[in-house]
């Protein structure tokens, strides 16, 4: 593996730390660009790092070039800023002029535009899956509990809904119970959507959270993320289970996710969406 440093563009959460640990394990040097307001500075004490305000892209790119980093890993939780909060430096202002309103429309449009700018600046944007292949799951059931016929029907309905909202670059998830759409994911994120869905729960069998990659989404750089908090939110919302796209989601702390789900009798199912659409439900183990 190349010994030039890889740059971890770090947002919030544990995923940037996991990428750093994987780099250490393989002997790959790295530098860290902490996204101001999202990354936790205490996590990066002792590392070669700079803090990057989202509107100061010019300074960040200059620092990365000086550090010898060409490959960039975008990882961690980041909320898209408003145009009024950016306060762009001179170079960032030029980028924004080229990106235009893509920076303030859907997430995919913004990420696509950012990757274009990075490549034009001589960088190679990458996703965390280059270092965290174990964070993905092939098709199959991860838990002791499996979905019943009603849950499989809700999964099919959820796939239809998530594909529809994903095509308009709105969100990656939906909660369906007994065929009714309780909530769809937008800018609030999965945790907030689950909390909202819990308040709308109907009597009877619990619903299902479905998370998919959006149509046309860059699987290398941007995948849905699920973790123990997702499972906790699904339990609190009274759901029967979670279905997510096989090899199309980042599972944070998979063992803890499975343990929490098994304790609550919740299913976790990695699916190939096309196997679960059509006139008849597909089997739970596909």
Using brief descriptors, characterize the structure shown.
33% helix; elongated; disordered C terminus; alpha/beta; six-stranded mixed β-sheet; 286 residues; 19% strand; EC 3.6.1.54; Cytidine Deaminase, domain 2; 8 helices; LpxI; Rossmann fold; five-stranded parallel β-sheet
Radius of gyration (Å): 20 Å
Number of helices: 8
Strand order of the largest sheet: 6-13-11-9-7-8
| Beta strand % | 15-25%
The secondary-structure class comes to alpha/beta
Main sheet makeup: 6 strands, mixed
Identify the CATH homologous superfamily of the largest domain: LpxI C-terminal catalytic domain
* CATH fold topology of the largest domain: Cytidine Deaminase, domain 2
State mean pLDDT (0 to 100 scale). Answer: 84
Q: Portion of residues in helices?
A: 25-40%
Number of discrete domains? 2
CATH architecture descriptor name of the largest domain: 3-Layer(aba) Sandwich
Contiguous low-pLDDT stretches (5 residues minimum) are 281-286
3D shape: elongated
Q: At the first level of CATH, what is the class of the largest domain?
A: Alpha Beta
Terminal residue distance: 35 Å
Order of helices and strands: EHEEHEHHEEHEEHEEHEEHE
Give the beta-strand count. Answer: 13
């Amino acid at each position: 593996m190349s010994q030039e440093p890889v740059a971890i563009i770090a947002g919030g959460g544990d995923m940037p730390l996991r990428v750093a640990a994987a780099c250490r394990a393989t002997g790959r040097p790295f530098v860290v660009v902490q996204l101001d307001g999202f990354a936790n500075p205490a996590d990066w004490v002792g590392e070669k790092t700079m803090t990057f305000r989202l509107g100061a892209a010019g300074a960040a790119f200059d620092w990365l070039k000086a550090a010898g980093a060409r490959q960039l890993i975008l990882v961690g939780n980041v909320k898209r800023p408003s145009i009024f909060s950016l306060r762009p430096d001179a170079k960032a202002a030029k980028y924004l002029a080229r990106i235009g309103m893509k920076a303030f429309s859907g997430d995919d449009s913004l990420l696509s535009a950012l990757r274009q700018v990075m490549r034009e600046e001589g960088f190679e944007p990458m996703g965390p899956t280059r270092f965290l292949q174990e964070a993905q799951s092939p098709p199959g059931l991860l838990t002791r509990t499996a979905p019943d016929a009603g849950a499989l029907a809700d999964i099919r309905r959820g796939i239809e809904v998530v594909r529809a909202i994903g095509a308009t670059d709105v969100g990656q998830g939906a909660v369906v119970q007994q065929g009714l759409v309780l909530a769809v994911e937008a800018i609030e994120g999965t945790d907030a959507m689950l909390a909202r869905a819990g308040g709308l729960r109907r009597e009877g069998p619990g619903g299902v959270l479905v998370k998919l990659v959006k149509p046309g989404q860059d699987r290398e750089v941007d995948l849905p993320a699920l973790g123990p908090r997702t499972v906790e939110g699904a339990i609190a919302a009274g759901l029967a289970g979670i279905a997510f796209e096989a090899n199309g989601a980042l599972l944070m702390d998979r063992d803890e996710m499975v343990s929490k789900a098994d304790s609550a009798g919740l299913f976790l199912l990695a699916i190939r969406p096309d196997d679960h659409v059509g006139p008849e439900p597909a089997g739970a183990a596909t």
